[in-house]
Amino acid sequence: MNTASFRRLRGLLRKEFLQILRDPSSLAIAFVLPAVLLLIFGDGVSLDARNVPLALVVERPDTFTASFTSQFELSPFFRPRRFFSIQAAERAMAAREVEGIIWIPSNFTRRAVSGGNSPIGVIVNGADANNARIVEGYLQQVWANWLVAQARAAGRPSPLPLAAEPQVRFNPAVSSRNYLVPGLIAVIMTLTGALLTALVIAREWERGTMEALMVTRVTMREILVAKLIPYFLLGMGGMAASVAIAVFLFDVPLRGSLEVLTGASALFMLAALGMGLLISSFARNQFVAGQIAIITTFLPAFILSGFVFDINSMPRAVQIITHIVAARYFVAILQSVFLAGNVWSVILPNAAALVAMAAIFLGAARIVARKRLD
Amino acid sequence: MWRQVLALIVKELLAVLRDKRSRMVLVGPPLIQLIVFGYAATYDLNNVPIAIYNQDGSAISRDLVTRFAGSPTFHLVAVLQSDLRINELIDSRQVQAVLVVDPRFTQSLLTQVPAPVQVIVDGRNSNTALLIVGYANTILSEFALAWDAAHGNPAPLAVLDVRARYNPTLNSQWFIVPGIVAVLTQVVTLLVVGLSVARERETGTFDQLLVTPLRQFDILLGKGLPGLVIGGIEASVIIAAAVWWFDVPLRGGLLPLYLGLFLFVVAVTGIGLMISSLAVTQQQALLGAFLFMVPSIILSGFATPIANMPAWVQDLTLLNPMRYFLVIVRGVFLEGSSVSSLASQYWPMAVIGVVTLAAAAWLFRRRVY
Question: How many CB atoms lie within 10 A of CB B340?
């Protein structure tokens, strides 16, 4: 890059910085949007079921049934309510007042003592299948603990002769916040990146200032670089704010190094800004650019990035589609860097993919933007 | 007067549909996203890659291993001969869980000592981890009960007889696809109305509109109806796809569903127009659209239950029309809910719609630059 080109770039940069400072909406996008969203979502997005309202129907209460039902009163997972008939409990479930029903029939104690295998009716609301499955898992634990305790009290060998210890690596308390907050950062930064640049080129076209720029010696590459640098700095600032909130406010452990996190964030930011520039160059008017940004950024980053929905469980064809979503690679890196540490076998391939995505988006923006007047 | 309003509506529809790229954005991506997301957004575990490290080697422990390897939930990718590779496999995400059978497993079972087995799970995705632990516990209990029965041990005192209402196989697609109806309807409606006033303001044509004989209410009608029409049509296509493509049962009637859809689209149109009239530039309108759309989807109960949120966030969701529409759309699809049982969901959306539309109309005139 020769000195003339450098001087032109400096002039363009000065113009971009002034534009950013004079319309506060860019600063709002870079700093306020990530902070506000992360504060609300970090608190609000949780898959940990607690205090699940549960109906208890005990048709003939005695000390034996009480030994079972008292488990629910102590559990942090359930908030039991007594019902006197199964019909009343079913009505409460239809009205969404309870998520599940435990039904202990009148002959329960007699059957348990005479031959065992006495059935306990469990009805869960399956409409929210994930929640139902988690509740079912909690119920199985309660049941297994109770069986073991009963056997021990009676001096019999345990009916479940296994000592199974689940060991959850990286997140022993299985707190969903620790895993959702890093993913949220990726989703929010996708929005920030695209929002910052999605309109900037289209705006120049729409207002006619692009034509004014084109009659100067400024090249299209210089225009793009001048658009990229200030927004890159803004985006990285927003990223730093998000990481600080995650670590200091939400106590998410940061087990990897800050350098790796910064490097990965820079790569991702280039890809996200590149996508915004591509949208902007392609659309050439702000209305269409805005529409494309709304439809192509948030929902794919939310659903296809592995942030809440596990990519391994998706059908093969959809797994292939997830590869065009840059957030996917960033989510994988963030989850590892935050919770597991510098796991190079995860970081390197995903970082390479981010480099490729950034190159493709910026290269495509360069090609699309080269087009002359029409 | 109606002729003038009609002319305005036609002009608004043309403004949205005339641009080829804009037309493309409204029709193509939502339908593609419906299909892709309908399959992608699942909480069901399939083919979870696991490794097994069996230190015991007896026929009994091999039976347990077979139960894991043969389950459709798990996909056995590695059989380990030592514990050296466990960390590496989990760290690099090649496997999500490792089953470790202790060398004393069989001996313990035969001497009625609790037999040690361990399940090591990758907790980076805590929901998957929780579900894997649940599935593993189920397989272990089944194995234990089968062992008891085969060796004449007394049967356990009680067994759980679990049934799921409304969705007996706990297929999470039945929960997510109706949710996608709500999400995409909102996105499409916002696409139509979210930038419309801001664009006219930025190009100056809105001032021209204000000096015509049209009243504020007429302008509101002209700006709002295209969103209502396009949002309603796309929602119908998406509902049809949910029923016939994804085979989600539609147990309730169309009346409770469409009453909810109408109120929902009105509320989203109102919010979109309000954002659009508050903004001076399209950049600001786009920021506003995102500032509404993202929280309204993430805090709607679409992916994570509202019941799990802290109280202050739950209170915040009361302002979110999608929260109510999700209850309606899922209630009508899976539970066959009626209009009367959903009344508590209809009226808040109606209130939001009326308030935001009135605010938008008021802003039309007050905010002139």
Answer: 7
- Ranking A93-102, A139-148, A156-165 by mean pLDDT, the lowest is A156-165
**Beta-carbon separation of B118 and A167 below 8 A:** yes
Could you give the residue ranges of the DSSP H alpha helices within chain A? Answer: 3-22, 24-27, 33-44, 63-74, 86-94, 108-114, 129-154, 176-198, 200-207, 209-214, 220-244, 258-283, 286-293, 299-303, 316-321, 326-335, 344-370
Number of helices (H), then strands (E), belonging to chain B: the values are 15, 5
Enumerate the H helices of B194-310 as residue ranges.
196-203, 205-210, 216-244, 254-278, 282-298
Burial environment of residue A11 by CB neighbours within 10 A (0 to 12, 13 to 18, 19 or more) = middle
pLDDT at B108 over 80: yes
Is the pLDDT at A119 greater than 60? The verdict is yes
Q: Which residues are CB-neighbours of A316 under 8 A, at least 6 positions away?
A: none
**Confidence band, pLDDT 50/70/90 cuts, at residue A262:** very high
Tokens describing residue A104: 């202990």
Residue A243: per-residue pLDDT: 93
User: How would you classify the pairing of strands B74-79 and B97-101?
Assistant: unpaired
pLDDT for residue A266 = 95
Please indicate if any CB of chain B lies within 8 Å of the CB of A242. no
Degrees to nearest 5, angle at CA A349 with A320 and A340: 105
Once rounded to an integer, what is the mean pLDDT over residues A291-311? 87
pLDDT at A321: 92
Q: Is B18 on the interface with A (CB under 8 A)?
A: no
Report chain A residues whose CB lies below 8 A from the CB of B342. Answer: none
d(CA B107, CA B90) in angstroms, rounded, equals 29
pLDDT at A1 over 60: no
Identify whether the C-beta of residue A364 lies closer than 8 Å to the C-beta of residue A279: no
Q: Tell me what the pLDDT averaged over chain B comes to.
A: 87
Q: For residue B146, which amino acid is it? A: A
| The residue to which tokens 């905010």 are assigned | B367
User: How do residues B122-174 score in pLDDT, each as one tens digit?
Assistant: 888 888 888 888 888 889 888 888 888 888 777 788 888 888 888 887 888 88
State the pTM of this model: 0.86
Continuous segment of H or E residues that includes residue A1: none
> Which among A84, A151, A158 has a CA at the least distance from the CA of B108?
A158
- Asked whether A87 and A169 are in contact (CB, 8 A), the reply is no
Q: Give the model confidence (pLDDT) of A319-332 as tens digits.
A: 999 999 999 999 99
Whether the CB of B308 is below 8 Å from some CB of chain A: the reply is yes
Topology given in CATH for the domain delimited by A52-154: abc type-2 transporter like fold (3.40.1710)
Q: Which of A79, A102, A291 to mutate to test the interface with B (most CBs of B within 10 A)?
A: A291
A26: nearest Cα among B115, B284, B280: B284
The question of ipTM being above 0.85 is answered as no
Domains along chain B?
A: 2-41+171-366 (no CATH), 48-150 (3.40.1710.10)
State the count of interchain CB pairs (< 8 A) between A and B. 394
- From CA A351, how far away is CA A330, in angstroms rounded? 8
The label of the residue with tokens 């109960």 reads: B301
Domain ranges of chain A: 3-45+175-370, 52-154
Q: Do residue B156 and residue A117 have CB atoms under 8 angstroms apart?
A: yes
Cβ atoms within 10 Å, residue A61: 13
Average pLDDT over residues B66-83: 89
Q: Which residues contact B259 (CB under 8 A, 6 or more apart)?
A: B339, B346
What's the pLDDT score for residue B191? 84
Strand order in the sheet with B74-79: A162-169, B115-122, B97-101, B48-54, B74-79
Q: Do B158 and A116 touch (CB under 8 A)?
A: yes
